[in-house]
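From the methods appendix. Each design record in this collection lists the tokenized structure first, followed by the designed amino acid sequence. Records were kept in a plain field format so they could be parsed without special tools. The example shown here is representative of the layout used throughout.

RECORD:
FOLD TOKENS (378 positions):
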């Protein structure tokens, strides 16, 4: 298969879809890999490393899209890329369709095959291609929150861990999944007093067993959230519904109950956000203030630590990329139910329920798009 790795052009996105080691593995299976020149520089990988691994360098993003049968990326295509996508071309990347109606319609119009990292799902319901970036974003959330709690950055002027004789900050984490667990772990390690909320009692029991003593668990409902935000200094939104919009657990009217300088970090912003007042921001301009509450809503948080993130992502995506390249996307998805769940948009049809529900679009069955294409009659 002809595989293309374009340079990411989203604002301050320094990750790359494939490491030189990933190129070498695909080459070992007989595939040709085209990498756009300088695509890996932001993550610390030189063009020469890709060439040594067996990649062919192409000078422009247009060349990569025009040549490849499968595109391996990190972030969803942005508007400048839409016209480059060919009908039937396989795109293997993060899409988060439920947060962008424009992107959804663009991919439908291009009749691309969109296999989304974030909805590949194991029988255990784990999301193997979302987990590594969730781990990175979760660990970054208290780090970024601690920074924006500083007074020069309009925060409350509180040191997350406090000092002897002074209470530490109170961190509220909404969601006990991968992001929430990692956020709570780092915040607790920095010395904060942490409350983690979830709707699963079983998950709260697990967290209660494994977390240190400065982490408490509370069942998540509107009443408990409204009470907790009154004393929170940093609130981390860490709620995920795979492939669908995140629910708004913190609404606009709740901001009035927060202390001035409270910091909100909404890690779920690329799925619409679980804080109503959040909108996607960039690393270049990461925050805004509403009602004296600081909102940090960067939609590609792991892009700030691209070396770590690219290695972690390729570790997870490469085995699936090899299957797709070796077998073709139809056969690979027929043989691997986890990959099949990654299909969101195929040849002009939505095949993932969360996406169809988000934008009121008709839902086609996955089985219908996995049928082999008819052989042309000579």
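DESIGN:
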């Amino acid at each position: 298969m002809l595989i293309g790795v374009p340079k990411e052009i989203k604002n301050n996105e320094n990750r790359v879809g494939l490491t030189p080691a990933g190129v070498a593995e695909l080459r070992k299976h007989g595939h040709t890999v085209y990498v756009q020149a300088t695509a890996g520089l932001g993550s610390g990988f030189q063009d020469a490393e890709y060439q040594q691994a067996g990649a062919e360098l192409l000078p422009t993003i247009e060349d990569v899209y025009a040549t490849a049968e499968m595109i391996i990326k990190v972030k969803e295509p942005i508007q400048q890329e839409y016209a480059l996508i060919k009908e039937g071309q396989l795109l293997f990347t993060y899409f988060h369709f439920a947060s962008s109606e424009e992107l959804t319609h663009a991919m439908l119009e291009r009749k691309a095959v969109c296999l989304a990292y974030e909805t590949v799902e194991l029988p255990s319901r784990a999301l193997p291609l979302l987990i590594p970036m969730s781990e990175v974003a979760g660990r970054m959330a208290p780090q970024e929150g601690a920074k924006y709690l500083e007074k020069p950055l309009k925060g409350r002027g509180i040191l997350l861990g406090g000092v002897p004789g002074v209470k530490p900050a109170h961190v509220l984490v909404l969601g006990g999944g991968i992001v929430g667990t990692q956020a709570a772990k780092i915040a607790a390690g920095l010395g904060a007093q942490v409350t983690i909320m979830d709707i699963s009692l079983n998950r709260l029991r697990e967290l209660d067993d494994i977390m240190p003593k400065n982490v408490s668990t509370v069942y998540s409902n509107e009443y408990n959230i409204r009470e907790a935000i009154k004393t929170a200094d940093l609130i981390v939104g860490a709620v995920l519904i795979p492939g669908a919009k995140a629910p708004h657990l913190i609404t606009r009217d709740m901001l009035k109950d927060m202390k001035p300088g409270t910091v909100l970090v909404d890690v779920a912003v690329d799925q619409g956000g679980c804080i109503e007042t959040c909108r996607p921001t960039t690393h270049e301009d990461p925050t805004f203030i509403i009602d004296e509450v600081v909102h940090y809503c960067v939609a590609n948080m792991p892009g700030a630590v691209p070396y770590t993130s690219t290695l972690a992502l390729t570790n997870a995506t490469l085995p699936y990329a090899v299957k797709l390249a070796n077998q073709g996307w139809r056969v690979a998805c027929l043989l691997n139910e986890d990959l099949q769940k990654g299909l969101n948009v195929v040849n002009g049809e939505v095949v993932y329920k969360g996406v169809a529900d988000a934008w009121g679009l008709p839902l086609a069955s996955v089985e219908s798009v996995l049928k082999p294409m008819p052989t042309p009659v000579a």
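APPENDIX NOTE: The chain has 14 helices and 15 strands.
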